[in-house]
Amino acid sequence: MSGAFSTSNVQYLLKGLGVTVGVSIISIIISFIAGSVLGIILYEKVPYFTKTVRLIVNTIRNLPLLLIIFFTYFALPKLGVELNAFSATVFAMSVFEATMVAEIIRGGLLSVGIGQTEGALSTGMNKVQTLWYIILPQALKRSIPPLISQFISLVKDTSLATAIVLPELMFRSQVIYGQNPKYMVPMFITIAALYFVVNYSLSLLAKWFDKRLV
Amino acid sequence: MIDIFTQNWQTILNGFWVTILSSVIGLVGSLLLGTIFALLELAPSRSLRIIGTAFVEFFRNIPLLVITMFFYVVVSSSFKIGGFWSGTIGLILYTSAFIAECLRGGIASVDAGQMEGARSNGLTYTQAMTHIVLPQGFRLAIPSLGNQFINLVKNSSILSFVAGFDLMYQANVISGANLDPFNTYIIVGILYLLITASVSWVVKRLENRIGKEVIR
């Protein structure tokens, strides 16, 4: 087959989908772990430490992700941190999304009733045990639907890495329609469909959890 | 760092202005469009509901960049719209899907008795919706709408992809010229924080004021 959907073009695009999914999965794992730690710090009011973390989280949350990507890729090398496009994207996405996850986890922790903490403490558990065995599992369960919608945003935002020439889905579609203007419309339809399928299945998953948990 | 600002203040302020302009147009446009689609999603007629849901699900699940590039590359080849409008139209469509979701949540949490009471007083569905239910839904949705407005400001940086001459675009121009991306991006970051912080301050105040009215 020739034209927009020649075998080589399709393979080229699918490799881009692979990069998009790869960046997304790695960033989701890192931001989930880092965000949970930050969320717990925000929830437990550690003197001075929590205030510092709060300031950092608020600052990063209120900046455009694109700015953070550019900063990571173009400005960090001035400090001696050289990252290629892939690791710069993963780094920027993880930092940004971790602050988003932190807020969600903190909200989840706050939604667990104070009676749970009091009950656990009065049965003789210490603070760490209470958090780990009683509060955190309930909080995580409640955080699943908002976390999934955050991760949908993450998948969509990987397209911004086009700006630092990461060969992901969006970038590769631009390369293909750069060859021939006739390919523009088919390419936009294709990548919109691919992003839609990935994200819509995630949002169905979120809805399923929502129904089961409430 | 100060000298970057003193040397490029005109460029930076131009970009700052374009970012604010695009955000304000995006806010008004997406609020209007989002309200329409929230109402469609909740409409009594099944076909209207399907149209509303299809629109919202479509624009929520594809990246803003894809929408913006579509307008910049495909649409602008037949209609002359520049980078600014491609980006702003993309912003409006994308954000309105999220606003529709927030409003739908707000309207859904208005007590069903409000609609029933209005209808039994002789108002039509449209009158009851626009005069009784929608205003209350808006109030309940303010916190989540505020979040969307902050996202809108941040997302306006998409204009830099399509030569929209916004703050992010100017930052790239300046750092390309002075070869000091580190300090340039920090200055631009502070300016973005200035906008997003003011938006969240306004939203907090609205929340407090309107929250009190609801309780009263």
From TrEMBL, chain B:
The chain crosses the membrane at residues 16-42, 54-75, 81-100, 185-203. InterPro entries: AA_ABC_transptr_permease_3TM, ArtM/GltK/GlnP/TcyL/YhdX-like, MetI-like, MetI-like_sf. GO terms for biological process: amino acid transport. It comes from the Bacteria. CDD domains: TM_PBP2. SUPFAM superfamilies: MetI-like. Its main location: membrane. One of its GO terms (cellular component) is ATP-binding cassette (ABC) transporter complex. One of its GO terms (molecular function) is transmembrane transporter activity. It is found in: Cell membrane. Belongs to the binding-protein-dependent transport system permease family. This is Amino acid ABC transporter periplasmic protein. It comes from Fructilactobacillus florum DSM 22689 = JCM 16035. The lineage of its organism: Bacteria, Bacillati, Bacillota, Bacilli, Lactobacillales.
